């Protein structure tokens, strides 16, 4: 927050980056139909420098969205299909013992698919918790440690993971610490009938839609820098803190929160609110986030950072319903 006049050079860069994100949003809308909110939230996640978790039933274009974003932004991308037998070394890489022509033996590190700029962790909740947790250090610290040696990841580095609804067979719940590393949890719902009609016409004909690069990795890093330089009003900050703190079942919480919330969001939720709100403003071409941005982000920021107890479930109360109550009371 600052009272000084914004730097004209920063404003120029802001407008240029905003235009490029607008082109990316339009291009994605031509290959992923009826998912405008999902597209906006995914782009905002990257602009904020974070990782995203896309949750939805199979066949809703989650994989297509991620691969298209990699093409749009010119990012080096790898895809890992998470399965129950996937091991941590299959993601991070491993050391192999090699013998040189002189007969000297030494270990050589072979990088895994995590060494890219955009990692697609497809159906992440089908792998064991041990393999899921292998991504923790990479997502938080942007390097991995294998056999005691540190290996830095490329810059920028983002994980966009897809997940099937947890009720489906053959899935493992992600550990809370792993979930908290995702800036946003983005629900991917079924498209409406008009969008599905357009999707049928576009995808079942002779011509197949493709996307061209409209941004570079350098543009994305510039956007991430600009997001952190954007001003954020005191009212927006107060709403962020109000919603986040109201979701915690502390001793001074409201009776309804104490009754129904098993555990609530930590400070990382407030950070996610602040960065994602500014990212949405950047994508829309606005120079500062609004209260509406915070309300719009409440579900994606909080739904994976809190849990309701059995009493809430027995009354048919969902996490999203409870978050709406929190927003209404903020």
Automatic annotation (TrEMBL):
Protein name: AAA family ATPase
Domain AAA+ ATPase residues, every copy: 48-192
CDD domains attached to this UniProt entry: AAA
Domain of life: Bacteria
Database matches in InterPro entries: AAA+_ATPase (IPR003593), ATPase_AAA-3 (IPR011703), CbbQ/NirQ/NorQ/GpvN (IPR050764), ChlI/MoxR_AAA_lid (IPR041628), P-loop_NTPase (IPR027417)
Signal peptide as annotated in the record: none
The organism of origin for this protein: Hyphococcus aureus
